[in-house]
Write a structure and sequence with these properties.
Length: about 110
């Protein structure tokens, strides 16, 4: 089995005016993995996912992640892996490929911690 998803098939979700997510592969297509492109211009408050591990691959980035009280600068071409139940926040700008496994489900996302 395979799935081809065109740019016109993406589902855009605005977390806020500062954070937009273009969803390509969703849990409706695969329970095992989801793939999106996320765009930040501002801040993501403390958040965690209680079910999914998360990978960000930064296409265009100048941002700081705070993960477990450690601040990490991310730039173009960097990758960050965040395991489930890990609290993090972000400030800056980026465009990143975002992969969740198992697939992202909003009910598992805890925000504004």
């Amino acid at each position: 089995m395979y799935i081809k998803i065109n740019n016109t098939d993406k589902i855009t979700r605005g977390e806020s005016s500062q954070y937009i997510i273009d969803n390509y592969l969703t849990k409706n297509m695969s329970n095992n993995v989801s793939v999106a492109v996320s765009h930040l211009n501002g801040k993501i408050n403390k958040t965690k996912n209680i079910e999914s591990d998360r990978v960000y691959y930064f296409i265009n980035a100048n941002a700081k992640f705070t993960i477990d009280n450690n601040t990490v600068q991310v730039n173009n071409g960097d990758l960050i892996f965040i395991s489930k139940n890990t609290i993090y926040s972000v400030e800056g700008t980026f465009d990143a490929v975002l992969i969740n496994t198992p697939a992202f489900d909003i009910k598992n996302e805890i925000t504004n911690i």
